[in-house]
Amino acid sequence: MTKFINPGLMKTSRRNVLRGSVLAGAAAMTGAGAMAARRTPMPLKADATSAKLYKVAGEQTADSTAKSADLSGYTRIKQELVAPPFAPEHEQVATGGPKIIEITMETTERLMVVDEDTGASVWALTYNGSVPGPLIICHEGDMIELTLRNPEDSVMEHNIDFHASTGALGGGGLTHVYPGEETVLRWKATKPGCFTYHCAPGGAMIPYHVTHGMNGAVMVLPRDGLKDKDGNPLKYDKIAYIGEQDYYLPKDENGEFKTYEVAGDDYADSLDAMRTLTPTHSVFNGAVGALTGENALKFNVGETVLMIHNQANRDTRPHLIGGHGNYVWETSFSDDPLTGVETWFVRGGCAAAAMYTFEQPGVYAYVNHNLIEAALLGATAHFIVEGEWDNNLMEQVVAPRPFAT
Ligand SMILES: [Cu+2]
Q1: Cβ atoms of residues 301 and 388 within 8 Å
Q2: Identical topology for domains 75-223 and 240-386
Q3: Can you give the pTM of this predicted structure?
Q4: Which of 143, 216, 358, 360 could form a disulfide with 132 if both were Cys (CB 3.0 to 4.6 A apart)?
Q5: Which of 115, 140, 142, 161 is catalytic?
């Protein structure tokens, strides 16, 4: 199937889009095979924005005359990344000097069921196989040293743009890897807060990869930990790491979700679905029900939970039904947290943190409080909390009964 994704500029098809960027797609028009070249060839034609991105990335790659980084005083440690909704082992208050934190991520392409009831599925583009990608945690002043590996059996080019980093398109310009390639990027965490990272191969491939799951979050803690507006320390017992994912899954003429044989096969159809700006699904952690029922998160009364919410593409508004955001950092950890918040805001392309200490047992629904998205599109998680009920906070004075007439 051949479609024009940039009318008047270039023709694209499954074979040339697999190259990764629109730029590579342009090169494919010259007759190069979909996977023929290991490196991105210079495009003959490209739209202005993509051309500019290509140029910046090229300059960054070519500039090897800068002074070496001063790594004296740093200690190297490895961080074992874990699948969401969990967080890697970490210190809330940093001990010792700054660290170089070594992590490894693989750009895994895998078929995922999005909704068992409808059979909706997606060839997810992932970091380490999960949607969202794993949570990375460091402290301000640390360096993240990422080995990014694209498995040989992948069909697409990937990279990574860390919103927490500075320079080279967030590292995106230095990390393009084709199947069978790896790269190592080191960047310094200079801004405390929660930040999105995502794949950004170029042009229309950027939203395509992001809306196929290729995003996640980094939390950069202040060295002395989280604090309230008066500087009092705030500690959490557990982290709930939630990635909200909007999918735009193509349907056939009968309204059934289409299935595809390999990653990238849905590209042209996906672009049509994405152009509607209307997601078919908006889910937490990759699929409808990933955090409900048997998969609900479990806490106890008295436990303090830090909810980290990532949305790489679209605004959202988390709400904990039956609870609150006692402290909410929508932006930097350097800013005073908001307090006693009912519903907080996560800007598209951001991660945010909200802290709550459970006071009552029961089932809490954690939702996107666009309730249509929560109930119809999938953006719901359940927290099951055990402990003693407190009638001082709430009591059912009269159970529902027929009233006297
Ligand atoms: Cu990618």
Answers
A1: yes
A2: yes
A3: 0.87
A4: 216
A5: 161
